[in-house]
Design goal:
This protein has 344 residues and is of the alpha/beta class. The chain is built from 15 helices and ten strands. An eight-stranded parallel sheet has the order 1-10-9-8-7-6-5-2. Strands 3-4 form a two-stranded antiparallel ribbon. Helix 6 runs parallel beside helix 9 (169-193) and helix 7 packs across helix 9 (169-193). The radius of gyration is 19 Å and the shape is globular.
């Protein structure tokens, strides 16, 4: 008889490349939708600044979707807001954004002494504590932090930073060094609050920078963060990352959350057994506008390729139908039934 694992055990075993009863179903980025807000009574933008509401909406990943893990950080601006960037917190169906950069050079980077006590940070830590107290060890809880590359976009400016990668790489390295302290402090705090694993979102995407830039500028920082943070880590980068998957695998992450722009079979071939893969069901065409059958077909392709944790490719559009998000789990469960349970 096959052993049925708890959601938390299944997620962690999948993340750490151990034997599982079936692939885990989870996303290290947001799966919140307007339908879930209506079900839970916890709405954007309030949830970004209210830990109890954040936890209530995040819990729908388990209670409504039936996934194996909860990830409560819906925005990418919590750290930037705590550092002092002006933020537009959005609306019910729009994500928060940074309105303007904060600094013009790495020498200006200052992390407030009470950074971890700032409302945007405390909200996340409170939500993780609530979720751990509510669910115990039945489901996995994933924290999320912005990496220094993404933080540089926010505090310095996207165009300015990308220009510097070509013209002033020394300034880029100085920014990354300074801002990595933010990533490390917030990541450690989330693990201490009860997170089982940490998603590090750092958008050095192939749509914007070459793979060799990841290797030369960011990989050394990532190696140090993975070493020092003190828990399992999942790197998330949007877009086409095939040209840097080898470098990512060598950085020491336990897993990589990848985009549908990378074919699942190509991704598995590129990383081998060096790290687990998470993803990569398409958001804009399949989850938002497609049918449950189309969602299931993409999920099955990821399973057949050897992706260990099946889920959306990135934070889902806020109008994504619930039936499509649930179809991912149904496809994984059906594949496991047909196979008969155990997966190495």
């Amino acid at each position: 008889m096959s052993i049925v694992m708890s959601s938390r055990r299944r997620f962690l075993a999948s993340l750490l490349r151990g034997p599982v009863d079936r692939p885990a179903v989870a996303s290290p980025t947001s799966v919140a939708t307007v339908e879930q807000m209506e079900q839970t009574g916890a709405f954007f933008p309030d949830v970004h600044r209210d830990g109890a509401a954040m936890a209530r909406l995040a819990a729908a990943a388990v209670d409504t979707l039936g996934y194996d893990a909860i990830m409560p950080v819906f925005s990418v601006v919590q750290e930037a807001a705590a550092l002092g960037c002006p933020v537009d917190w959005g609306s019910v169906d729009t994500m928060p954004t940074v309105r303007a950069p904060l600094w013009t050079g790495p020498d200006q980077v200052q992390i407030p002494a009470a950074f971890l006590e700032g409302p945007p940070i405390r909200t996340v830590l409170d939500a993780i504590r609530v979720l751990r107290a509510t669910y115990g060890h039945r489901v996995a809880i994933i924290g999320k932090v912005m990496g220094p590359w993404t933080l540089a976009y926010h505090v310095y400016g996207l165009q300015e930073f990308l220009t510097d990668t070509l013209l002033a790489p020394k300034r880029v390295r100085e920014f990354l060094e300074a801002l990595s302290a933010v990533t490390l402090a917030f990541g450690r705090a989330q693990l201490a609050a009860g997170a089982d694993a940490l998603c590090l979102a750092d958008h050095a995407t192939g749509d914007l920078v070459r793979g060799t830039m990841y290797r030369d500028l960011l990989q050394p920082i990532h190696r140090r963060l993975v070493r020092d943070v003190g828990g399992p880590t999942v790197l998330h980068i949007c877009g086409n990352t095939l040209d840097r998957l080898g470098y990512i695998a060598d950085a020491g992450f336990d897993a990589f959350h990848f985009d549908s722009k990378v074919d699942a079979f190509d991704a598995v071939n590129a990383v081998g057994d060096r790290l687990a893969l998470v993803g990569n069901v398409n958001n804009p065409e399949t989850l938002l506008r497609g049918t449950p059958e189309e969602v299931a077909a993409q999920a099955r392709r990821a399973i057949n390729a050897g992706v260990r944790i099946i889920g959306p490719e990135c934070a889902v559009p806020l109008r994504t139908p619930l039936e499509n998000l649930i179809a991912i789990r149904h496809a994984v469960e059906e594949a496991a039934r047909r196979k008969g349970g155990h997966r190495e």
